[in-house]
């Protein structure tokens, strides 16, 4: 691997949800061989690194974020030799691979947890968070709904799970646990993967008082985030994690960091920060008041989005480096979230793509985003797979909403929206599989798929501009500045590097917008709608984005 310590600043990352990418053994579930088969597509697109969501042994309660063996491959996805083959073939194409590191919790089927349950005197009891008592120790609500405490059968004891009850939290206070995790991480890095995306890492430290807080919902519970997310003392664990593992390799680490305030960014991504970069969620959750309460929808405006985006970019720039995204496996499709109904066209998909792609940081593209995919509409809760969708549906009704409203909230926000199988072509099941896939396809796949798709061509063009053009240095290394003298609906910024300036303007609204520039446009590098009358005064159509100097 390149010896340049900051090599990861030059990557373009493509996120793969393996269960839905490509099925090669026709069981309706994607697999590792499917990723290998599609390497030519990914290479042609121009991406340089793949982040593969969990492929480890798992009962798949949370689609692999519940790991039963950190070093085994889930047979549904294939074998370790399939993975080795993928690693090698990707390397031949100059594509690096990063894996998902889920170390806040395990599956309840992990041998450590099984041993902990089987014998209360086992050393593995202290690998998890068990509390004795006849009542739940406090009123914390788990991220997926219900109490964070689950009773141990036959004992007056509870164990803690921040996510699902089948995802017991590891006890990071126990040094033996930390050592086991570090050794496992190092073995993966020795194998030659380029690094990790690090799951839920801001949850590893819990307030040791385990005290209740005033309830914040009709269920009488309170979100556990106030006591378990980015809590004081976490810095000790994160420094040690970095020191014992990542620092020993020339690897990249991307922390999933909800709950980290801007003032703390430098601890996370500064010169001696815990990670190479982090995902910031401040603007990703613009459509809801909180990422786990989908019934609390907002009436957000483009102006608010712009302010959040600018604040996020400024904080990331001041502290270090960010991981930019508009979609992932926990979010709805960006086209459905950010673009008004009636305007969710390929041109708008290009527009919002360009809006974020040239921000300062490493761009992440989620599978299917480059096709201009939109949310699936499901008619009944039984059509959903995602545990948090099911939880949000019932919680919405518990909060007084009708069943129809609850279904609407879930359709808008469900994590299943981005988890539908990848449509490769317009044949039955979109060329994803020859049998009915594990989760319904989007209805639009015969029209929106990877074959002759103008949005795919647009993503190729964006990647080529960032990676291998005369303006690459500016687009990757340049500082970012947000324009202030533009309308509320226009997201405008420029990148600046060694005297060169590249401007990006996006109209995030359903109305035409006029922008008055200080000087005539010289070169238009990209125009999502191909309708630009270049000059000092330009008119941007709804969701049009241009990149120029
Ligand atoms: C992260 C993952 C999400 C998962 C959760 C628990 O937020 O992105 O998919 O459900 O952690 O591991």
Q: What form results from the Cα inertia axes?
A: globular
CATH superfamily annotation of the largest domain = Glycosidases
Number of strands: 24
What small molecules does this complex bind? alpha-D-glucopyranose
Main β sheet profile: 8 strands, parallel
Strand content: 15-25%
CATH class of the largest domain: Alpha Beta
Averaged pLDDT, please? 96
- First and last CA, distance: 35 Å
SSE order and pairing:
Layout (H helix, E strand, L loop, with lengths): L12 E4 L15 H6 L1 H7 L3 E4 L3 E2 L11 E5 L6 H13 L3 E6 L9 H8 L11 E3 L7 E2 L7 E3 L5 E4 L14 H17 L3 E4 L23 E2 L1 H4 L5 H11 L7 E5 L8 H5 L7 E3 L8 E3 L2 E5 L4 H18 L3 E2 L9 H5 L7 H12 L4 E5 L20 H12 L4 H11 L40 H14 L4 H6 L1 E4 L7 E8 L2 E8 L5 E4 L7 E4 L9 E4 L4 E4 L1
Parallel strand pairs: 1-2, 1-17, 2-5, 5-10, 7-11, 10-12, 12-13, 16-17
Antiparallel strand pairs: 3-4, 6-9, 8-9, 14-15, 18-19, 19-20, 20-24, 21-23, 22-24
Explain this structure to me?
Residues 15-419 form the Glycosyl hydrolase family 13 catalytic domain. Keywords: Glycosidase, Hydrolase. Belongs to the glycosyl hydrolase 13 family. GO terms for molecular function: alpha-amylase activity. This protein is globular. It has an 8-stranded parallel sheet with strand order 13-12-10-5-2-1-17-16, with helices on one face. A 5-stranded antiparallel sheet has the order 18-19-20-24-22. The longest helix is centred in the middle third of the chain and has 18 residues, at 302-319. Helix 11 (346-357) packs parallel to helix 14 and helix 12 (387-398) packs antiparallel against helix 13 (403-413). The protein has 549 residues and is of the alpha/beta class. The chain is 27% helix and 18% strand. It folds into 3 domains: 9-106 and 175-461, Alpha-Beta Barrel (TIM Barrel); 111-160, Oligo-1,6-glucosidase, Domain 2 (Oligo-1,6-glucosidase, domain 2, Alpha-Beta Complex); 474-548, Immunoglobulin-like, CATH 2.60.40. It binds alpha-D-glucopyranose. Alpha-D-glucopyranose (GLC) binds at residues 62, 65, 102, 163, 199-200, 256, 329-330.
């Amino acid at each position: 691997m390149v010896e340049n310590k900051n090599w990861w600043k030059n990557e373009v990352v493509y996120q793969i949800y393996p269960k839905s990418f490509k099925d090669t053994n026709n069981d309706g579930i994607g697999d590792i061989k499917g990723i290998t088969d599609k390497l030519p597509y990914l290479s042609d697109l121009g991406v340089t690194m793949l982040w593969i969501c969990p492929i480890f042994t798992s009962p798949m309660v949370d689609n692999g974020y519940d790991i039963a063996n950190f070093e085994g491959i889930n047979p549904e996805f294939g074998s370790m030799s399939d993975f080795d083959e993928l690693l090698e073939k990707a390397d031949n194409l100059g594509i690096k691979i990063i894996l998902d590191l889920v170390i806040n919790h395990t599956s309840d089927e992990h041998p450590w947890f099984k041993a902990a349950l089987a014998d209360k005197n086992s050393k593995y009891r202290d690998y998890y968070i068990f509390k004795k008592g006849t009542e739940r120790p406090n009123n914390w609500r788990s991220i997926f709904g219900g109490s964070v405490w689950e009773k141990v059968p036959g004992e007056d004891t509870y164990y803690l799970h921040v996510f699902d009850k089948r995802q017991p939290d590891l006890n990071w206070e126990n040094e033996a646990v930390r050592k086991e995790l570090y050794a496992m991480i190092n073995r993966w890095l020795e194998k030659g993967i380029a690094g990790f995306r690090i799951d839920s890492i801001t949850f590893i430290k819990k307030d040791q008082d385990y005290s209740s807080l005033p309830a914040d919902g009709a269920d009488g519970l309170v979100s556990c985030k106030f006591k378990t997310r980015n809590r004081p003392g976490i810095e000790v664990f994160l420094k040690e994690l970095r020191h014992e593992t990542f620092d020993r390799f020339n690897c990249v680490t991307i922390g999933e960091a909800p709950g980290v305030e801007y003032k703390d960014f430098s601890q996370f991504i500064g010169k001696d920060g815990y990670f190479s970069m982090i995902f910031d969620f401040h603007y990703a959750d613009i459509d809801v008041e909180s990422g786990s309460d989908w019934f609390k929808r907002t009436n957000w405006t483009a102006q608010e989005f712009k302010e959040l985006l600018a604040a996020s970019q400024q904080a990331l720039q001041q502290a270090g480096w960010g991981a930019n995204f508009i979609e992932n496996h926990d979010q709805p499709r960006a086209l459905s979230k950010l673009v008004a109904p009636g305007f969710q066209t390929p041109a708008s998909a290009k527009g919002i793509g360009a809006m974020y792609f040239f921000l300062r940081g490493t761009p992440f593209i989620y599978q299917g985003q480059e096709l201009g995919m939109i949310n699936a509409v499901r008619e009944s809760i039984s059509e959903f797979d995602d545990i948090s969708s099911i939880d949000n549906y019932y919680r919405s009704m518990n909060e007084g909403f009708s069943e129809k409203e609850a279904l609407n909230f879930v359709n808008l926000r469900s994590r299943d929206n981005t988890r539908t199988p990848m449509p490769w072509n317009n044949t039955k099941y979109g060329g994803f599989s020859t049998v009915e896939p594990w989760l319904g396809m989007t209805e639009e796949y015969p029209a929106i798929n990877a074959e002759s798709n103008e949005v795919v061509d647009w993503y190729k063009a964006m990647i080529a501009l960032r990676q291998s053009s005369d303006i690459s240095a500016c687009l990757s290394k340049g500082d970012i500045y947000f324009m202030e003298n533009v309308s509320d609906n226009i997201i405008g910024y420029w990148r600046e590097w060694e005297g060169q300036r590249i401007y990006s303007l996006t109209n995030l609204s359903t109305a035409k917008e006029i922008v008055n520039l200080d000087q005539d446009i010289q070169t238009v590098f990209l125009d999502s709608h191909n309708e630009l009358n270049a000059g000092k005064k330009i008119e941007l159509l709804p969701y049009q984005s241009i990149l120029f100097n």
